[in-house]
UniProtKB/TrEMBL annotation, chain A:
Keywords tagged on the record: Membrane, Signal, Transmembrane, Transmembrane helix
Name of a matching Pfam family: Gpi16
Any one GO CC term of the record: GPI-anchor transamidase complex
Domain of life: Eukaryota
KW Zinc (keyword) present: no
Transmembrane segments: 588-610
Residues annotated as signal peptide: 1-28
Name recorded for this polypeptide: GPI transamidase component PIG-T
GO BP, sorted A to Z: attachment of GPI anchor to protein
TrEMBL record, chain B:
Name of the featured protein: GPI transamidase subunit PIG-U
Any single GO BP term: GPI anchor biosynthetic process
Protein topology in the membrane: Multi-pass membrane protein
Similarity section: Belongs to the PIGU family.
Organism of provenance: Lobosporangium transversale
Pathway where it operates: Glycolipid biosynthesis; glycosylphosphatidylinositol-anchor biosynthesis
Residue spans crossing the bilayer: 20-37, 78-95, 162-183, 189-216, 228-250, 256-279, 291-312, 318-345, 357-377, 389-413
Compartments (UniProt record): Endoplasmic reticulum membrane
Domain of life: Eukaryota
Keyword Mitochondrion recorded: no
Keyword Endoplasmic reticulum: yes
Keywords per UniProt: Endoplasmic reticulum, GPI-anchor biosynthesis, Membrane, Transmembrane, Transmembrane helix
């Protein structure tokens, strides 16, 4: 009986959704507002958006960014709401049930999980659209700490996600979990679990806990992608997701996939709230590697084709960033080029031309055209797109080890500010306990000159000492980076000698040390693409731009700094490092135990002997007598 | 061996004091010169043979830095030294000359106290002339105080330990001060010093017993002895508790207990040193770790009572042997521990002639002192050696220490035997004196 009823439930859900998307997709928020008057407690205006952003990169690569957004909406009538979000997750149409249950049972308010393979080249590719590009796995979550169970919930969360995504997330235990004080602020706008309070003062009253952990050594592969695809309403059967072919996705220079869950407001006054699940896949294809040609098309990149939009999606767009050529326009050809789908966003030097393809429109109702695959291709007239404008990211950071030998070393972080103005930034560096940091060796160089007093650069410093086998060291700095400057932070450390069981099987390869994260507010003009934030989706959709603005405003009011509401917080990830620790001889346990114990026994035995026996002169009467006795025996 | 000793020769009174000034002046100048060499002190301070996790000056600086900036210093895995040390260096660490001066003066103070201890011991032994003579030979008097002090002050181990700014020096000073005060029969200061040494590095708690033996030596009644012992115990505890309270006031937390004594006893920091335990616990299977930890830590302490019972007549030697046991079997031994017991050894110089393996011991010490830094370099920097190289040198050094302890204990037992049953004055010359053949039964 059970599977049948489940199937029925699903099919009705899908039907319901299609109906709702057909009829009322025009303005979801208005619909929700309307519903509020009729249904007092709860209505879930679920919605699903899919989007693909394609961007030719300066080095000839093609950058693709898939973004799938699912909303599970609720209208929080403050008088009737029972405080727990149980009703929110009582019924699932589009929102993946596995994620909903995880959020519910571990009281997670915000969840950000990113799997990344490869390293993002900031100086070649600029800033990514995805919020996180740190190599390996990064997981951070805001947990409700009402019942002081955040630690247990965090453990449960990592273990459950580990099972869900077939990854080693369960290794994010206390020894590598941290609680940043300045970085990784919550991105959601209100607190689902305490909606009895008005949105303006939710942050101050609910005890919440941020937990952050990363696994730099984690490899990302198909087994992680498959469960990720399963979270999508259309899976990879139709719509943009049908392009996701693991064989091609992992054959790239950079691959990153993520899920972000956060609570958001659906209207200006935050009367209608919803939980947003954003799934992203970011890849950088090396287009020219195959045949030397920089031309690409959807089918050449993904070896798949889109034959229809996802029927469950409210919007389904493909957006192409047109190359910013410095000379005459006709260096490339994008086909098909729709005159109505061409916009210019941003202004001044940040201007960006985009071409938008609405798949919903392309496949709307017409059954004959739906069998025709959507074709998109970019062709360059010359063999190499030379004349594109160079990218100069405002802030670039690098990190490296100094020193030699396996006893001690140094860590240096270099931050370049190419901007013409000072930038406030936050640096977060997490180092595992097997690096013993010496904070008194911390130095700051400004443009290669040692600063005696670095108060002007380092405004605030938060330092957590590592405890052996218990927790990592955390160094968090609130910085003021002067314009056109290079700041170098150095600190020295000792390498810890680990027990032989604590070494990985390939001990001489070394240990991966995770990236440092620099959170920088990048000034943005109205309508400009928001890098490093999933909000940019809304900006593309035009009508939601004001919504993003209002959200940002309310966030900043909560944080208490509403002076610079025109900024995006971009997180810049540095390189991960490989640390080689001194190794013992792994074949020696028995030898060492035997030899050490022998030496100790040598002392004990001799000392025992000396303490218990007395001297006698050889040949004296006593000894002779005893010898005789012995012989007699 | 003892060129300065002129027994019975009451020459010009100012010659010995001139010599004292010369020795101490030379020791002072040597240390000052070495401390002011560029890079040399920091190279020494980075040597694992000199600085251990619980005595490293670098870690002390880190602790002071954290304390100064409001980070609880014991809430982490770097700083494991006593809070009062933190307080002391909090005041002076910003002035390197002051820190250097403190190290030099403490080292010289140890030398001075050894000089004084020898003087008291000589006074004691002249009142007990019968020990000086046996058979038909007169035992030579021991080394003079100045020789003992110079042997300490110019011992390379002492010098590098001082230049490397190992904080074991302060613990050593407390130990020697305790012995001095014990010899001077000053209960209060003796117990305070031993409590301070215990507070700084825990193991010297054992020295309670020999110091009480010193305080109760001579012709005093059983009742008196008991009374003094009980008083000493109370004084020791009172001093220790007040030191702990003072520390609590300073750092405003009891976390220093686990930070300092937890690290000493549980051997959690497995940074290599000249001891036997680091590699043992790196290689040990996890489920046996606690068993061996308990056994090895007990092993350090179990000798205190039997040695004190057997050799109760020689409290100075008992202090030496207990310091040597500590310096060999503790979790984080360093050159500084060797400097202490090698400094205490000449106090019992009368036993030297009964020792059998002096040459071997000296060679083992030389061999390990030379090869330890080389093998360390081969393992950690060049990569052409592995951990076993350094461990092997640690074993050789440990064997050297063990043979030294066994040999000296044998020698003092042998001397004790000679005193109790002096050889007959007539008879076979081969059986005369200390080279006659004996056997242990």
């Amino acid at each position: 009986m059970r599977p049948i009823s489940g199937q029925m439930l699903l099919s009705t859900g899908v039907l319901l959704c299609i109906a709702s998307s057909l009829s009322t997709i025009a303005d979801a928020s208005q619909q929700a507002l309307h519903v509020k008057e009729t249904v007092p407690i709860l209505k879930a205006p679920e919605a699903f958006h899919e989007q693909l952003v394609l961007k030719p990169l300066n080095d000839g690569g093609a950058y693709s960014h898939f973004q799938f957004t699912t909303h599970i909406g609720t209208m929080m009538d403050e008088e009737h709401f029972d405080g727990a979000a149980s009703n929110l997750f009582s019924h699932y149409n589009l929102f993946p049930r596995s994620i909903g249950q995880i959020l519910h049972s571990f009281e997670v308010e915000e969840l950000h999980l990113t799997f990344t393979q490869g390293r993002w080249q900031y100086s070649d590719w600029g800033y990514p659209l995805a919020p996180s590009v740190g190599t390996g796995v990064e997981l951070w979550a805001w947990l409700n700490n009402n019942r002081l169970q955040a630690e247990g919930n965090w453990r449960g969360l990592t273990n459950t996600l580990s099972g869900l995504f077939c990854a080693s997330l369960n290794f994010i235990d206390d020894t590598i979990s941290i609680e940043p004080k300045l970085s990784f602020r919550n991105e959601g706008l209100y607190n689902v679990h305490s909606s009895k309070l008005s949105p303006s003062n939710t942050t101050s009253t609910t005890p919440r806990k941020l937990r952050y952990g990363s696994l730099p050594h984690e490899n990302v592969c198909t087994e992680n992608l498959t469960p990720w695809i399963k979270l999508l309403p259309c899976k990879s059967k139709s719509g943009i997701a049908s392009l996701l072919k693991s064989h091609k996705l992992f054959d790239t220079r950079f691959y990153s996939m993520a899920i972000h869950v956060r609570p958001v407001c659906e209207d200006d006054k935050c009367k209608v709230k919803s939980l947003e699940l954003v799934q992203t896949i970011t890849t950088v294809f090396d287009v020219a590697r195959q045949d030397g040609s920089y031309d690409w098309s959807l089918s050449s990149l993904f070896e798949r084709e889109i034959t229809q939009a996802c029927p469950l999606a409210s919007t389904s767009n493909i957006i192409v960033h047109l190359p910013q050529t410095t000379q005459f326009d006709k260096q490339y050809e994008l086909t098909p080029m729709l005159p109505e789908g061409r916009y210019t966003i941003g202004s001044d030097e940040n201007k960006q031309e985009i071409a938008v393809y609405d798949l919903k429109k392309a496949y709307s109702g017409d059954t004959s055209s739906s069998s025709e695959p959507f074709k998109l291709s970019m062709q360059w007239e010359s063999s190499r797109p030379k004349s594109v404008q160079p990218i100069s990211p405002g802030i670039v950071a690098h990190r490296y080890f100094t020193g030699y030998g396996q006893e001690r070393g140094g860590l240096s972080i270099e931050i370049y500010n190419n901007d013409s103005q000072d930038v406030e930034a936050v640096l977060l560096d997490t180092l595992p306990w097997y690096l013993k940091l010496y904070l008194h060796t911390f130095t700051v160089h400004l443009n290669d000159q040692l600063l005696e007093n670095y108060r002007d650069i380092v405004k605030k410093m938060y330092y957590q000492q590592a405890v052996d086998r218990a927790r990592p060291a955390v160094l968090e700095l609130a910085l003021n980076l002067p314009s056109h400057s290079k700041i170098k932070f150095s600190i020295s450390f000792d390498k810890v000698f680990l027990k032989y069981t604590e070494h990985p099987p390939d001990a001489n390869r070394g240990f991966d040390i995770g990236y440092a994260v620099i959170t920088v507010p990048l000034a943005r003009q109205k309508g400009q693409i928001g890098y490093g934030s999933v909000d940019h989706l809304r900006i593309y959709q035009g009508r939601d731009a004001s919504l993003v603005q209002s959200r940002r405003l309310s966030t900043q009011q909560q944080e208490g700094n509403d002076d610079d509401n025109e900024t995006d917080k971009v997180r810049i990830y540095t390189e991960t490092l490989l640390l080689s620790l001194p190794t013992p001889d792994f074949s020696m346990p028995y030898n060492v135990i035997t030899l050490t114990c022998t030496v100790i026994a040598l002392f004990f035995g001799s000392m025992f002997n000396l303490m218990t026996r007395n001297f006698e002169v050889v040949g004296s009467d006593k000894t002779k007598g005893k010898d005789k006795e012995k012989k007699d025996e | 061996m003892s060129t300065n000793v002129v027994p019975g020769g009451q020459k010009a009174a100012n010659t010995p004091s001139n010599n004292v000034a010369l020795v101490f002046g030379a020791a002072f100048a040597l240390r000052l010169g070495l401390l002011n060499l560029p890079a040399f002190p920091s190279i020494l301070a980075d040597q694992v043979e000199i600085s251990t996790p619980i005595t490293s000056f670098k870690r002390l600086s880190e602790g002071v830095f954290l304390f100064r900036n409001g980070v609880p210093p014991y809430d982490g895995g770097v700083f494991h030294q006593a809070p009062l040390l933190l307080g002391l260096f909090y005041l002076i660490i910003n002035s390197p000359p002051l820190v250097n001066a403190l190290y030099i003066l403490v080292d010289l103070a140890i030398g001075y106290m050894l000089l004084q201890i020898t003087a008291i011991k000589e006074r004691d032994s002249t009142s007990e002339k019968k020990i000086m003579q046996y058979g038909d030979k007169t035992e030579e008097s021991g080394m003079s105080g100045l020789t003992v002090a110079s042997l300490y002050l110019f011992n390379p181990f002492t010098i590098v330990s001082c230049i490397g700014k190992s904080t074991i020096l302060f613990s050593n000073m407390a130990v020697v001060a305790g012995i001095w005060m014990g010899m001077k029969r000053n209960k209060g200061l003796a117990m305070f010093s031993i409590a301070l040494a215990t507070y700084l590095s825990f193991y010297p708690a054992m020295l309670m017993i020999p110091v009480v033996l010193m305080l109760t030596r001579g012709d005093i009644g059983k009742q008196q002895q008991k009374r003094i012992s009980v008083q000493c115990g109370a004084l020791f505890l009172a001093c220790l508790i007040s030191l702990f309270l003072l520390s609590f006031v300073l750092v405003d937390s009891w976390s220093f207990f686990s930070g300092v004594y937890g690290t000493i006893l549980a051997v959690t920091d497995l940074t290599p040193n000249l001891g036997l335990l680091w590699y043992f616990f790196i290689e040990m299977f996890d489920h046996f770790r606690s068993f061996f930890l308990i056994v090895f830590q007990l092993h350090v302490f179990i000798f205190a009572v039997p040695v004190s019972i057997k050799l109760w007549k020689y409290p100075l030697f008992v202090s030496f042997i207990l310091c040597a046991i500590m310096g060999t079997f503790k979790g984080y031994p360093s050159i500084g521990d060797a400097a202490l017991y090698l400094g205490l050894l000449p106090l019992s110089s009368e036993i030297f002639k009964y020792m059998r393996y002096t040459f071997l011991v000296v060679n083992l010490f030389l061999y390990s002192s030379l090869l330890a830094p080389i093998f360390w370099y081969l393992w950690v920097y060049v990569g052409s050696g592995n951990a076993n190289f350094f461990y092997a040198i640690g074993l050789v050094y440990g064997i050297g220490e063990i043979i030294l302890m066994i040999d000296t204990t044998f020698a003092i037992c042998r001397r004790d035997f000679e005193i109790l049953s002096p050889p007959e004055t007539s008879g076979d010359p081969a059986s005369l004196g200390w080279d006659r053949e004996v056997v242990q039964k």
